Every structure is written in C-alpha cells, then in structure tokens.
Amino acid sequence: MNALVKLILCTTALHATLVAAAEPQAGASAASASAQQIIRAGEQPSAAGPTEYFTGRVRIDPVWPADEGISASGGLVTFEPGARSAWHTHPAGQRLVVTSGVGLTQEWSKPVQLIRPGDVVWCPPGVKHWHGAAPDTAMTHLAVTGTVDGKNVTWMEKVSDEQYEAR
Ligand code: MN
C-alpha cells in the first residue's frame, strides 16, 4: 500500500469517526439555530381535547411548539358537530384559520359568528371568547397561539347549550 492510499484510508476512517461522534449531538440539539429541521408526519401524536375545557368530541393535532425564535404554537383542532371550547382568553392573542367544515365563534357579549374554510379569526389578548363546530357539521382550524411566560390560555366556564344555540 502506498503512502497516498494509506493517507486517504486514514482520513476516511477519521472522518467516519468524527461523523459518528457528532451524530448523537446533532439529534439531541434538534432546535439548532443553523440547521433545517423536518418534523415528519406521524411524529406528533393526536390528543383528545380535555373534558374540563371542551364540550363534545375534540381532537388536537400538535403542529409546532412555541420556542425562543417564534413564541407562538401551532395546532390543528378538530371539533365534531356540536363540540366547542369553553370560554377562555389568551394572554398574547390567537389567530384561527378555518381549514375545513363549518364552525362557530363568539366574543363575550357579541353575536355568535359562522366561520368557514379560509376565514381567519383574530382573538386579541385578554378578550373572552369560544370557538367550535356548527351543530350539524364538524370544523377544523389551525390555531396559532402566542405564549407569555409559558402560558397561552386562561380557561373559564363552559359554553352552555343556550349560549351555543343563540343565533
Ligand atoms: Mn381561543
């Protein structure tokens, strides 16, 4: 074996060792500021909306968490017909983008509003409101919710049937 081949083999082995050593760190620091990251479909389990905060069947599919770079989380929330959130406020506000179905939303002391795919709802900080599906049709929205000191919602009382049906 000549010297050049030895050098290449040695360099290749060293490179492989360095890459192997670096890989666990790269995986651990997934939120590295300089590396693109792809969260694959199927890596973020769906969860049921807790019965303390929702009426009816609700599914939450996490999309992205709030972090130091963008202090707002994203989540897809699917409400079965008649299902809705409890009354609540958000400390930094929330944007809702309806992606399918027909929904309802209401700000405290204002009329219930019908919302449809493509509609974008802005819920200002501290404004009491709820959102959910129409009585006979499911609704899914993307919820982009700002975080303040690790908190993004203050839950209140449930939306009564009388409030839900007042249209
Ligand atoms: Mn909300």
Task: Walk me through this protein's architecture.
The chain has helices spanning 3-28, 161-165; strands spanning 47-48, 54-55, 58-64, 72-79, 84-85, 88-89, 94-101, 103-107, 113-115, 120-123, 129-133, 139-146, 154-155. The chain has 167 residues and is of the alpha+beta class. The chain has one domain (3-19, 41-165): Sandwich (Jelly Rolls), CATH 2.60.120. The strands form four sheets. It has a six-stranded antiparallel β-sheet with strand order 1-3-4-12-7-10, with no helix packed on it. It has a three-stranded antiparallel β-sheet with strand order 9-8-11, with no helix packed on it. Strands 2-5 form a two-stranded antiparallel ribbon. Strand 3 (58-64) and strand 4 form a beta hairpin. It is globular, with a radius of gyration of 23 Å. The N and C termini lie far apart (86 Å). The relative contact order is 0.18. Mean pLDDT is 86; it is low at 1-29. The site of manganese (II) ion (MN) has 6 residues, from strand 11.
Give a topology summary.
Elements: H1 3-28, E1 47-48, E2 54-55, E3 58-64, E4 72-79, E5 84-85, E6 88-89, E7 94-101, E8 103-107, E9 113-115, E10 120-123, E11 129-133, E12 139-146, E13 154-155, H2 161-165
Bound molecules: manganese (II) ion (MN).
Manganese (II) ion binds at residues 88, 90, 94, 123, 129, 131.
Put the structure in a nutshell.
Helices cover 19% and strands 35% of the residues.
SS elements, strand count: 13
State the separation between the terminal residues, measured CA to CA.
86 Å
Task: Give the total of domains.
Answer: 1
| Share of residues in helices | 10-25%
Order of strands across the widest beta sheet?
Answer: 1-3-4-12-7-10
Radius of gyration: 23 Å
How many helices does DSSP assign? 2
What amount of the residues lies in strands? 25-35%
By CATH, the architecture is named: Sandwich
